[in-house]
Amino acid sequence: xxxxxxxxxxxxxxxxxxxxxxxxxxxxxxxxxxxxxxxxxxxxxxxxxxxxxxxxxxxxxxxxxxxxxxxxxxxxxxxxxxxxxxxxxxxxxxxxxxxxxxxxxxxxxxxxxxxxxxxxxxxxxxxxxxxxxxxxxxxxxxxxxxxxxxxxxxxxxxxxxxxxxxxxxxxxxxxxxxxxxxxxxxxxxxxxxxxxxxxxxxxxxxxxxxxxxxxxxxxxxxxxxxxxxxxxxxxxxxxxxxxxxxxxxxxxxxxxxxxxxxxxxxxxxxxxxxxxxxxxxxxxxxxxxxxxxxxxxxxxxxxxxxxxxxxxxxxxxxxxxxxxxxxxxxxxxxxxxxxxxxxxxxxxxxx
Length: 351
Hints:
The protein is mainly alpha-helical and about 350 residues long.
């Protein structure tokens, strides 16, 4: 009897840990998808991005959802039209943020852009859904706020490390940066980018959300999240596709699809898509299992963890070689981000 009780307690603890474990696992994909963007040549950006968007936002989400959600499209059709439209609009707003991210990088560099965007995205993507809920966990709010603030400080420290590194490299190359324009675009990008997580949260509406009808059709709770992503990412894809096609016409770069020796670029566009939606798909499962506060808690952890993983890849790619002082600031920022993630994760145990 005592063995049975111990075993049940172990299973309970394992299940409680599973949601956080899934979100943490998703950070590996979140921080890795950008690697594929290093291998766009000889394709033009707009050609590479259109292929990437098609796989990341349409093909992969739909294929995964069809496997785990019985009668997927009927489940989606059952959800109220206003919820589906809202989820798609939020997905489209994220698309604006993604486009602005790409515009900010040439002005202020990848490190600073990444730091600002992820910091604001983590904060807005956590706090906006919290205050949109009908019955938020009031006891968790101080921990959520405190954790988000700590994480934003950590992201700011990593961004500062990136500034020092980029400044050092720019001086060596004799280049200048347009800080004002880049900062404005990056701040807007960070805010708009948060709407991907907000759109996912909108599909959660209890008793009437997309996830609810997916469960009614026989999907498990965590797999029902895949039905939500199908709808949200339709909005994201439409905007990204329109922008890519616009650039294809503007730059007269349709012939880029026929470039010789472009097989590697196509492969990396698909690999990047696998990582990108792998992050959202696994995160969605973990956030769903966390319950009502799942998106509030999981989203900033996904963003902060993704930043850490991306900098690990940058280190192995020797992007921090010869930048001892900036790398020290980077490590300090990573430690602070980890502390913030722990505080936010703890918020799900109170109340």
